[in-house]
Write a structure and sequence with these properties.
Strand content of chain B: over 45%
Number of strands of chain B: 11
Strand content of chain A: over 45%
Low-confidence stretches of chain B: none
Number of helices of chain B: 0
Order of helices and strands of chain A: EEEEEEEEEEE
Distance between the termini of chain A: 41 Å
Shape of chain B: globular
Shape of chain A: globular
Oligomer: heterodimer
């Protein structure tokens, strides 16, 4: 099967940089993606990595190392509205399923 | 507007009752998914469908059933065999463009047991 591990909670101050790590186990890896979910809302897509390296989209960047089965989401210039849960997800395994991690709750403080 | 529509937003189930959650998309996506989310938890895959008239079990399919008779629709039935159905249910569809896969989620259905 597939499994993902990410920290349950991270706290940072407004304007800072925060990194949310994700390690995964899967067979037949296709890609690692990141989603943001505000309380009571639907997850929204942030980033996707299929190849090693860094992908940058505005204040958010995502990194992948396939050899280490590891990725991270980097959030810069944190804003209060970034307070949310962040999920990594991996596609792979039997049936080519998309499996989500348990999520990291990010709290941005003044 | 294009998107995923889930209904109802809130649903209550009595003991022994089957209930059906609706999911409709007008994004012309082939793949659709149902996830269950418990408070403070991640998303667990119930069923997914990569094409019309075909679907596969996810990680927690027991007590649930689906159909995919039309590309636009992927309803989920929570049967009486699901003994702990209280959760937030999310439907999604996906597309891959320029090698990037994105899931688009509906606004969810909160199911509670009376």
């Amino acid at each position: 099967g597939q499994s993902l591990e990410q920290p349950s909670e991270v706290t940072a101050v407004e304007g800072a940089i925060v990194q949310i790590n994700c390690t995964y186990q899967t067979s037949g890896f296709y890609g690692l993606s990141w989603y943001q979910q505000h309380d009571g809302g639907a997850p929204t897509f942030l980033s996707y990595n299929a190849l090693d390296g860094l992908e940058e989209t505005g204040r958010f960047s995502s990194f992948l190392s396939r050899s280490d089965s590891y990725g991270y989401l980097l959030l810069q210039e944190l804003q209060m509205k970034d307070s949310a849960s962040y999920f990594c997800a991996v596609r792979g395994g039997g049936g080519n399923k998309l499996t989500f991690g348990t999520g990291t709750q990010l709290k941005v403080e003044l | 507007d294009g998107g995923i529509t889930q209904s109802p937003k809130y649903l209550f189930r009595k003991e022994g009752q089957n209930v059906t959650l609706s999911c409709e998309q007008n994004l012309n996506h082939d793949a659709m998914y149902w996830y269950r989310q418990d408070p403070g938890q991640g998303l667990r895959l119930i069923y997914y469908s990569q094409i019309v008239n075909d679907f596969q079990k996810g990680d927690i399919a027991e007590g649930y059933s689906v159909s995919r008779e039309k590309k636009e629709s992927f309803p989920l039935t929570v049967t009486s065999a699901q003994k702990n159905p209280t959760a937030f249910y999310l439907c999604a569809s996906s597309m891959t463009s320029a090698g990037i896969e994105k899931l688009f989620f509906g606004s969810g259905t909160q199911l509670s047991v009376l």
